[in-house]
Amino acid sequence: MSGMDGIDSQITCTGSSVDKLPHLKGNEVKSYSLPESHGADEILPELNKSSLTNPDILRYSRQLVLPEFGVQGQLNLSKVSVLVIGCGGLGCPVAQYLAASGIGRLGLLDYDVVEMSNLHRQVLHGENRLGMPKSVSIVKTLQKLNSSVIYLPYHMSLNPENGLQIIRQYDIIADCSDNVPTRYLVNDACVLAGKPLVSASALRWEGQLTVYNYQQGPCYRCLFPKPPPSETVTNCADGGVLGIVPGIIGSLQALEVLKIASGMVPSYSGVLLMFDALEGRFRNIKIRGKQNDCAACSNSAETAILQDYEAFCGSSASDKCRMLSLLSRDERLSVEEYKRLLDDHIPHILIDVRPQPEVDICQLPHSIHIPLKGLEQKNEKWISFLRTKIAELINTGNRVEKTVITICKLGNDSQIAVKILQEIFGNEVDLFVVKDVQGGLMAWAEKIDPMFPRY
Amino acid sequence: MRVQWFCFFLSCLTRRVLRGGAELLFDGIKQHQVTLPNQSNPWDIRQLLVWIRHNLLKERPELFIQGDTVRPGILVLINDADWELMGELDYQLEDKDNIVFISTLHGG
């Protein structure tokens, strides 16, 4: 086995490889010794190992003595390649335990770079890796853990062009992605390529895990033929996630991959694991078998990779926040305009519409807090509080235009709030105008007050 | 007839409308134990969904029900099994049945 290839392929980040790593261009280039990022079209050599070496025996001795696993399990593992799609909260524990246990080859794919807000759950990156591609960062960490595994970082997003090409090159696929279009794409490509798919997800205090497309088991589309309406999908930035939750679910995901790779029977094909961390409850649910009318797997000869998964799902293939545009430009204030209004002491009300936990993190001191939910429900307590404030504003002596301004984290909810306020106070709009702050508090932190917390 | 049902794992319903998670759809309650009124024919899931919609859903019912069934992305479990194995909408409820609505998660 070409066990040291991983290290030999380490290169210093020079001009040619920077081109593959657009996030490190220009002045962001640091003198990292970077594992080389790989392309979708690269043909990977077969993994071939007929016996364990003495260092292998020493390293893996504690699992070699397990009768269910043993020498044969270890040899099987060493001949298997696994593609980890997403090097985040799930991808880290999956890759970590597979690398430690001696998997043959690990492909690590992620389009994103390391950010500070990742580190509470994406525990293989680190403070010195900010801005580095996650696929590269994770390989740097894994090489320290087990240098005998072959690692291939892919710094790219999976798309209908490269998806099938990459997935065909691996034996088992671990879906550790964070968005709906990628989950459908990965499923369809796995069906087409005939690869088992170990799929996990986590959000807030909850996690789910199951195995798709294993032998005659169901695929993702058997269970979910239609994507959920995009407004019902929450990402980790909006919904939050406790770092330990993907840690637990990702560890179980690694276990499922290891079972399949070593020749054991997986536990979660046809079974869905649900984990509720708040209640400390695990549930195993028996799910339907392969569906005869499944668009993907009922006749895999006819399965096709769609042209556009983002259109199919009505959402973006990343977990970055979307930007709404409900308001016209003159119904919005830029943070600079708002700053000027403040400096000129123009009377106004600033309504912070974020939920309480976010207001507890930070707020502008002169803002009043009315959560969007209170406005949506036209909650009497909040509305009468608001009426009092507006009456005070209108009665202030000076004649300038009176403005009620809404603000939130990024400038989406604040637009919804403006719409609701226009509806509630429709008859009184000649007394004041309602606007929101474009880009919200995060734009304020970026452009006006660098001391304001970002989250 | 007493039917226990949970709104379990529904928290990834829309953030915009239901900040704290979709248990808010049902007024913040994750777990309901309900006694359905007696009727001549046995209750089935189709009727249970209608009953839930009229009696428990506080806002935005379309985030839970579309047409006469649950919206895409919600999985219904009857006594810890996928409802597809149990007859889906036609499953006839029995006393002390446990119905769970889960919503798929996509974060990672």
From TrEMBL, chain A:
Q: Provide the cofactor note recorded for this chain's UniProt entry.
A: Binds 1 zinc ion per subunit.
Name one matching Pfam family. Answer: ThiF
Q: Name one GO cellular component term.
A: cytosol
Under the heading SMART domains, the entry gives: RHOD (SM00450)
Give one GO term, molecular function aspect.
molybdopterin-synthase adenylyltransferase activity
Q: Which reaction does it catalyse?
A: [molybdopterin-synthase sulfur-carrier protein]-C-terminal Gly-Gly-AMP + S-sulfanyl-L-cysteinyl-[cysteine desulfurase] + AH2 = [molybdopterin-synthase sulfur-carrier protein]-C-terminal-Gly-aminoethanethioate + L-cysteinyl-[cysteine desulfurase] + A + AMP + 2 H(+); [molybdopterin-synthase sulfur-carrier protein]-C-terminal Gly-Gly + ATP + H(+) = [molybdopterin-synthase sulfur-carrier protein]-C-terminal Gly-Gly-AMP + diphosphate
Q: Which UniProt keywords apply?
A: ATP-binding, Cytoplasm, Disulfide bond, Metal-binding, Molybdenum cofactor biosynthesis, Multifunctional enzyme, Nucleotide-binding, Nucleotidyltransferase, Transferase, tRNA processing, Zinc
Task: Say where the protein is mainly found.
Answer: cytoplasm
Enzyme group, top EC level?
A: transferase
Q: CDD domains given for it?
A: ThiF_MoeB_HesA_family
Picking any one GO biological process from the record gives: protein urmylation
Q: What is annotated as the active site?
A: C236 (glycyl thioester intermediate), C408 (cysteine persulfide intermediate)
Question: Rhodanese domain spans which residues?
Answer: 344-453
Query: Binding residues for ATP, per the UniProt record?
Result: G89, D110, S117, N118, L119, H120, R121, K134, D178, N179
Provide the taxonomic classification. Eukaryota, Metazoa, Chordata, Craniata, Vertebrata
> Per its Swiss-Prot or TrEMBL entry, what cofactor is needed?
Zn(2+)
Q: Does the keyword Disulfide bond apply?
A: yes
Residue runs in coiled coils: none
- The entry's protein name is Adenylyltransferase and sulfurtransferase MOCS3
Q: Could you tell me the EC number(s) of this protein?
A: 2.7.7.80, 2.8.1.11
Q: Which HAMAP family match?
A: MOCS3_Uba4 (MF_03049)
Query: Gene of origin?
Result: mocs3
The UniProt record gives the binding positions of Zn(2+) as: C219, C222, C294, C297
Report the InterPro entries cross-referenced here: MOCS3/Uba4 (IPR028885), Rhodanese-like_dom (IPR001763), Rhodanese-like_dom_sf (IPR036873), ThiF/MoeB/HesA (IPR045886), ThiF_NAD_FAD-bd (IPR000594), Ubiquitin-activating_enz (IPR035985)
Q: What family does the Swiss-Prot or TrEMBL record give for this protein?
A: In the N-terminal section; belongs to the HesA/MoeB/ThiF family. UBA4 subfamily.
**Cross-referenced PANTHER family:** ADENYLYLTRANSFERASE AND SULFURTRANSFERASE MOCS3, UBIQUITIN-ACTIVATING ENZYME E1
What biological function has been recorded for the protein in this entry? Plays a central role in 2-thiolation of mcm(5)S(2)U at tRNA wobble positions of cytosolic tRNA(Lys), tRNA(Glu) and tRNA(Gln). Also essential during biosynthesis of the molybdenum cofactor. Acts by mediating the C-terminal thiocarboxylation of sulfur carriers URM1 and MOCS2A. Its N-terminus first activates URM1 and MOCS2A as acyl-adenylates (-COAMP), then the persulfide sulfur on the catalytic cysteine is transferred to URM1 and MOCS2A to form thiocarboxylation (-COSH) of their C-terminus.
Cystine connections: C313-C321
From TrEMBL, chain B:
Q: Does the keyword Acetylation apply?
A: no
Q: Does the keyword Ribosomal protein apply?
A: no
| GO MF annotation: an example | protein tag activity
What CDD domains does the record point to? Ubl_Urm1
Q: What is its main location?
A: cytoplasm
Against Gene3D superfamilies, the record matches this protein to: 3.10.20.30
Q: Where in the cell is it found?
A: Cytoplasm
Q: Name one GO biological process term.
A: tRNA wobble uridine modification
**Signal peptide positions (record):** 1-19
Mind telling me which GO cellular component terms the entry cites?
cytosol; nucleus
The pathway entry for this protein reads as: tRNA modification; 5-methoxycarbonylmethyl-2-thiouridine-tRNA biosynthesis
Q: Which UniProt keywords apply?
A: Cytoplasm, Isopeptide bond, Signal, tRNA processing, Ubl conjugation pathway
Sites where 1-thioglycine occurs are at: G108
Q: How is it modified after translation?
A: C-terminal thiocarboxylation occurs in 2 steps, it is first acyl-adenylated (-COAMP) via the hesA/moeB/thiF part of MOCS3, then thiocarboxylated (-COSH) via the rhodanese domain of MOCS3.
The UniProt feature for the cross-link Glycyl lysine isopeptide (Gly-Lys) (interchain with K-? in acceptor proteins) gives its location as G108
Q: What does it do?
A: Acts as a sulfur carrier required for 2-thiolation of mcm(5)S(2)U at tRNA wobble positions of cytosolic tRNA(Lys), tRNA(Glu) and tRNA(Gln). Serves as sulfur donor in tRNA 2-thiolation reaction by being thiocarboxylated (-COSH) at its C-terminus by MOCS3. The sulfur is then transferred to tRNA to form 2-thiolation of mcm(5)S(2)U. Also acts as a ubiquitin-like protein (UBL) that is covalently conjugated via an isopeptide bond to lysine residues of target proteins.
Q: Which family does it belong to?
A: Belongs to the URM1 family.
Its protein name is: Ubiquitin-related modifier 1
Q: Which organism is it from?
A: Xenopus tropicalis (Western clawed frog)
